[in-house]
């Protein structure tokens, strides 16, 4: 039995892929254009249509950017801005053109007790948010200012996924199903819990939990071919991860990690343990990933089916080529552009990025 477990553990480790050498771009196939400047921190961008962007700023604002005008929305919830927390992600309902429904993630709380990540829905009517509804609020509040997670994604079946980081309490939250933090969650768009959530029949646990053992997932997307939810996860010093999320699975933090503490000390000697999921890919050293996106567009020569990951640390986009579930090539894109906070494709397949203290950029293909 012991030998069998060791074999399983070896197989588990071998499924994870470590860092590969990053390449300088061979030929820039795009022109980088600043389409909307801002001196603040744009956190998330979405598209009302090809020519109209809606985006959030961390300090607590939402703007709609058209071809010739910029409009600030009113009616937002109270935003608790502290450390890494503030107004974060925005997601449009798949039928937004019919129901005007949007979803927000934000830090909710107060200066005395602190705060935690909240998810809300609202209708966008005449540049104002109305019928604001709180769908989920992480418990308990804390004055710690890190690891709010925040990303939102609706899947093909209409379920809403979102992330909350470990909130700086790594030794408790990620592995405790009775506590929020260090989790990926799944709810219905009205805030109710799906009947087939993995822990729906367990007593005393947070029934919205879909997966656990996460540090700070700051990127999420729905794979257009498989329908699976992918996340990327901001690790400590090394150990950033890409994960494919499966119901009820434990992704290991902090029991296993490929990273170490920022001061250089050991978090754990284990990189794999039975029953704990391995990442599809991990970075050593860390790039401090924020958002990421799957490139379904054919408008960029040779980039289709790649991933684009925003690097906060190195201030570039990183393009990853995949083959048979493995990263085969890494490339720097938009070098020195700044701290990339979000990456999105427009409805017509043009890449847009939100860069802290600079604004929103578009990558215009040179071959068009």
Description:
By secondary structure, this protein is mostly beta strands. The chain has a single domain, classed as TolB, C-terminal domain (Neuraminidase), CATH 2.120.10. It is built from two helices and 25 strands. A five-stranded mixed β-sheet has the order 1-22-21-20-19, with no helix packed on it. A hairpin with a 3-residue loop joins β8 (101-110) and β9 (114-125). Mean pLDDT is 95; it is low at 1-8.
SSE order = HEEEEEEEHEEEEEEEEEEEEEEEEEE
Largest sheet: 5 strands, mixed
| Percent helix range | under 10%
Query: How does the helix and strand content classify structurally?
Result: mainly beta
Q: Tell me the CATH superfamily.
A: TolB, C-terminal domain
Q: Into which percentage range does the β-strand content fall? A: 35-45%
Count of helices? 2
- Overall pLDDT metric: 95
CATH architecture: 6 Propeller
The general outline is globular
- How many strand units? 25
- The tally of domains stands at 1
Low-confidence stretches: 1-8
CATH class: Mainly Beta
Radius of gyration: 20 Å
Highlighted features:
single chain; 368 residues; mainly beta; Neuraminidase; 2 helices; 25 strands; globular; disordered N terminus
């Amino acid at each position: 039995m012991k030998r069998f477990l060791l074999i399983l553990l070896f197989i588990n480790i071998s499924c994870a892929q470590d860092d590969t050498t990053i390449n300088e771009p061979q030929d820039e196939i795009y022109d980088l254009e600043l389409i909307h400047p801002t001196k603040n921190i744009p956190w998330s961008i979405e598209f009302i249509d090809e020519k109209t962007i809606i985006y959030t700023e961390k300090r607590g604002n939402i703007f709609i950017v058209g071809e010739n005008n910029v409009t600030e929305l009113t009616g937002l919830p109270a935003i608790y801005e502290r450390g890494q927390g503030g107004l974060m992600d925005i997601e449009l309902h798949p039928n937004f053109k019919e129901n005007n429904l949007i979803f927000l993630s934000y830090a909710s709380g107060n200066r005395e007790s602190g705060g935690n990540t909240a998810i809300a829905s609202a209708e966008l009517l005449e540049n104002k948010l109305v019928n604001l509804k709180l769908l989920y609020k992480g418990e308990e509040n804390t004055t710690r200012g890190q690891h709010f997670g925040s990303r939102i994604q609706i899947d093909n079946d209409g379920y809403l996924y979102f992330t909350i980081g470990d909130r700086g309490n790594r030794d408790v939250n990620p592995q405790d199903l009775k506590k929020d933090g260090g989790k990926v969650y799944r709810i219905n768009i009205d805030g109710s819990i799906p009947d087939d959530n993995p822990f729906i029949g367990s007593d005393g646990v947070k029934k919205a939990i879909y997966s656990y053992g996460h540090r700070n997932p700051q990127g999420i997307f729905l794979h257009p071919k498989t329908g699976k939810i992918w996340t990327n996860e901001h690790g400590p010093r090394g150990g950033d991860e890409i994960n494919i999320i499966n119901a009820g699975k434990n992704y290991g933090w902090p029991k296993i990690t490929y990273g170490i503490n920022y001061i250089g000390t050991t978090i754990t000697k284990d990189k794999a343990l039975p029953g704990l999921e391995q990442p599809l890919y991990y970075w050593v050293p860390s790039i401090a990933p924020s958002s990421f996106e799957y490139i379904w567009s054919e408008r960029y020569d040779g980039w289709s089916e790649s991933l684009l990951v925003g690097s906060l640390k190195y201030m570039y986009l990183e393009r990853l080529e995949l083959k048979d579930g493995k990263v085969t090539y890494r490339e720097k894109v938009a070098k020195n552009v700044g701290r990339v906070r979000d990456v999105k494709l427009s409805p017509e397949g043009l890449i847009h990025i939100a860069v802290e203290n600079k604004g929103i950029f578009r990558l215009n293909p040179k071959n068009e």
